[in-house]
Design goal:
mainly beta; Jelly Rolls; 5-stranded mixed sheet; 4-stranded antiparallel sheet; 1 helix; 9 strands; globular
């Protein structure tokens, strides 16, 4: 995996923001939200993000708020680029929940239909040592 160049290592996709999100090596928590959060997310959105930590690190996520139109709008979290290694499939209202990557990369996809758009989601992402995960989930 190549290292990010802080000056210009993101590609932008309109409402989705940066497609590649690089975790801060200082251990700071990064905020990650659905498009337009805390306002309602837009209709007919398809977003895909790659969240990338340094080699030998994992990504720890903690959901702060989560409100999607149940069974019509989704946030799916995967451990691989081909969407085979499912970490979480989320829709509706999710209370505080944590999850972690299985490698230094995590992929997320968000999709909304054309009706019933709600607030969306807000979460904290943190790059951690694999031993940090034990007992946190």
């Amino acid at each position: 995996m190549r290292k990010p160049n802080d000056d210009h290592f993101c590609s932008y996709l309109g409402k989705c923001g940066a497609r590649n999100i690089f975790m801060d090596s200082s251990g700071r928590v990064s905020n990650f939200t659905s498009p337009d959060f805390p306002n309602n997310y837009p209709p007919n959105v398809e977003c895909r993000w790659s969240i990338i930590a340094e080699e030998s690190q994992l990504i720890f996520a903690r959901i702060l708020e989560f409100e999607l139109e149940r069974e019509f709008d989704y946030l799916n979290v995967y451990g691989d680029e081909d969407n085979q290694d499912v970490i979480a499939l989320l829709t509706g209202n999710v209370k505080l929940r944590t999850f972690a990557s299985v490698s230094n990369v995590m992929w997320m996809t968000f999709s909304s239909d054309n009706t019933g758009n709600l607030r969306g989601f807000s979460m904290e992402l943190k790059q951690v040592q694999p031993t940090y995960i034990i007992g946190k989930i």
